[in-house]
Amino acid sequence: MRKKMYQNVVANHFREHSSIYLFVVVLFLMGVIFGAIIVNSLSFTQKEDLFYYLSQFFGQVSDGNVAAANDLFKQSFFHNTKFIGVMWILGISIIGLPVILILLFMKGMVVGFTVGFLVNQMGWDGFLLSFVTVLPQNLIIIPVFIVASTISVAFSLKMISRQFMKKVGQPIMPLLGRYMFAFVIAVLFLCAAAGIEALLSPILMKSVINSF
């Protein structure tokens, strides 16, 4: 019974905010495409310099000289939690609405640039490498960021309508409570993603690099 109730809440949420989700997903994909395009606009020297540092890193991974899993976990978890924490604050601040969208676009751009650069420089090997290093944790991180962005945008729009259009809606405290709860759930998912990035990704990366 409780499980069905949660499913209904989730279904209603996606139905109510479907237009925002569509906009946010398209914006993220535009960021990914833009990031991949930037790779082609780099000069030969810039690509050579970047690939040199990348090769040094791959050499360290191959030799097993990577950060401890504990350090990788902390780094990934705190980086991603800070990202959605900023989104949470921007959602409350009303004026932060455009910044939320810019942050999501930039996240997409980073993903697009990373994958695009690896493929551009290493071809099929680069695609395989990006598949095992970028994809596993991002299967969780990207949906979390998209949901977090949508919730922040929706909350910000509700605050704007209350503040400037003087619309009377639901009391603010239950809305704020649900908003906080959603981000607590998001942090738990990011914890799982950090675990994958710290434990699984280095193993996959090392096995792929050693197979080159």
List keywords for this structure.
212 residues, mainly alpha, 9 helices, 88% helix
Shape annotation: globular
Strand content: under 5%
The count of DSSP E runs of length 2 or more, i.e. the number of strands, is 0
Low-confidence stretches: none
Give the helix tally: 9
Biggest pleated sheet: none
Distance between the termini: 52 Å
Mean pLDDT: 82
Radius of gyration: 20 Å
The secondary structure category is mainly alpha
SSE run = HHHHHHHHH
The helix content is over 70%
Can you offer a commentary on this structure?
By secondary structure, this protein is mostly helical. The chain has nine helices and no strands. The protein has helices at residues 2-16, 18-41, 44-62, 69-92, 97-122, 124-133, 135-164, 172-199, 201-211. The mean pLDDT is 82.
Short structural summary:
The chain is mostly helical and 212 residues long. It is built from nine helices and no strands. The radius of gyration is 20 Å and the shape is globular.
How is the secondary structure organized here?
Layout: H1 2-16, H2 18-41, H3 44-62, H4 69-92, H5 97-122, H6 124-133, H7 135-164, H8 172-199, H9 201-211
Helix pairs in contact: 2-5, 2-7, 4-5, 4-7, 4-8, 5-6, 5-7, 6-9, 7-8
